[in-house]
Design goal:
61 residues; mainly alpha; 0% strand; membrane; Tom6p; transmembrane helix; transmembrane
């Protein structure tokens, strides 16, 4: 006999059936999403460092 039944607490309701996942949700949960996101951040960072904007932000020594 479980402690929930012993103290008269109602059992948890069964979980509702999950809706089917969209293609984007499946992609977001895959390792490819992490690889693509980190690659995009890396490429963006390199582009920013190489840009004239970075030259304007850095002090001229």
């Amino acid at each position: 006999m479980s402690s929930a039944a012993m103290f008269g607490m109602p059992a948890a309701a069964p979980a509702a059936p999950a809706a089917p996942k969209s293609r984007f949700q499946k992609f977001k949960e895959s390792p490819l999403y992490t690889i693509a996101l980190n690659s995009a951040f890396f490429i963006g960072g390199v582009a920013f460092i190489q840009s004239p904007l970075m030259d304007m932000l850095a002090p001229q020594l």
